[in-house]
Amino acid sequence: MNKNMLTELSDILNSRFSGLPCEARRLFHGRGRCYEGLEQLTVDWLKPVLLVSIFKEQEDSFYASLSEMLLVFASSPKWKEAGGEHILVQHRDRIDSPSEVVVGSIPEQLEITENGLTFLLDIGKRQNNGLFLDMRFGRKWVMANSQNKRVLNLFAYTCGFSVAAIQGGAQKVVNLDMAKSSLARGRDNHRLNAHDLSKVSFMGHDIFKSWGKLRKNGPYDLVVIDPPSFQKGSFVLTKDYAKILRRLPELVAENGEVLACVNAPDVGVEFLLEQMKEQAPEFAFVCRLENPPEFEDISDQSALKVMHFVRG
Predict the structure, then answer these.
(1) What pLDDT score does 228 carry?
(2) Which domain holds residue 242?
(3) Do 74 and 207 sit in the same domain of this protein?
């Protein structure tokens, strides 16, 4: 990256701190390749934390210039007015993704809001903090389209879609994820929003060994599929997505819906369209959901893909 671009980054942060929402937001998305020289850097506002993430090792001079810029920003009136307390730099390229404190400290845990809902995050403890901000519109769509529905949330992680579905009036949500610790955080998120946990199931299983259990709890009116691009030993998107799609006729009710997601820059829109047509042709494509505007990307093919299908 280019340390001379940090002046532009400072200007962008100052501009975007004006009229800043109380909810969590990405403030700068260099990963979308719209800012030459800052492609390996993102900035998230998780009130009262400003989290700067770096995805590729840089020269010492870049880190020094970044820290200097952030310290100047922390002394600005806008930072104080917004209630900023902590500035962290997370090194996503390093083992365990450690976080460096520039201002303040690392909060033990952090409650943030999105779409009026509350989520609990872990800051500075692991690579991902507990909520992917680029899926904000996806969770909003689920909240608006879950009334009285039975929902299946695959690769549930910390159950963001489940929280949105129950808030939107879902009759039942089944969450499946191999990581039981993530599902435990999902329970915490539901409790934070005063949800009735009798409507929510948490299955800590390998999806490819759980089709019988999933069928038993179905059929579902809405299935959300939001897998990782790659998870060593368990999931490779380009190879394994088809195995999920071909099971949809067994899981989805008549006129049921599917929200299928891909967040791999090198996998375009046609991948999901072709895979669905081949593996589950009775599901018709409806539309691709828009991404939040703050996640600007040089190409809509490399940006997050959230695709809506309906069973005919």
Answers:
(1) 87
(2) 133-311
(3) no
- The predicted-structure confidence for 215-244, as pLDDT tens digits, reads as follows 999 999 999 999 987 666 678 899 999 999
- Quick check: is 300 in a domain? yes
What are the angstrom distances between the C-alpha of 123 and each of 48, 76, 185, 249? Answer: 12, 24, 14, 39
**Strand duo 305-311 + 252-262: pairing:** antiparallel
Classify residue 34 by its DSSP letter.
-
* Assigned domain for 19 exists: yes
Terminal C-alpha separation, the chain: 49
Amino acid at 89: V
- Both tokens of 53, joined, read 């993430």
Based on the domain organization, do 94 and 182 belong to the same domain?
A: no
Residue 95 in this model has a pLDDT that exceeds 80: yes
Dihedral sign, Cα of residue 135, residue 141, residue 145, residue 146: positive
At 74, the pLDDT band (50, 70, 90 cuts) reads very high
Distance CA 281, CA 57 (A): 44
Q: How many domains does the chain have?
A: 2
Q: What pTM was computed for the model?
A: 0.94
Structure tokens at 274: 């072709």
Q: Packing angle between helix 60-74 and helix 6-16, nearest 10 degrees? A: 30
List, in order, residues 6 or more apart from 199 with CB less than 8 Å away: 166, 170, 171, 172, 173
Domain co-membership, 139 together with 250: yes
Do 237 and 146 fall within a single domain? yes
User: Which amino acid type is present at position 144?
Assistant: A
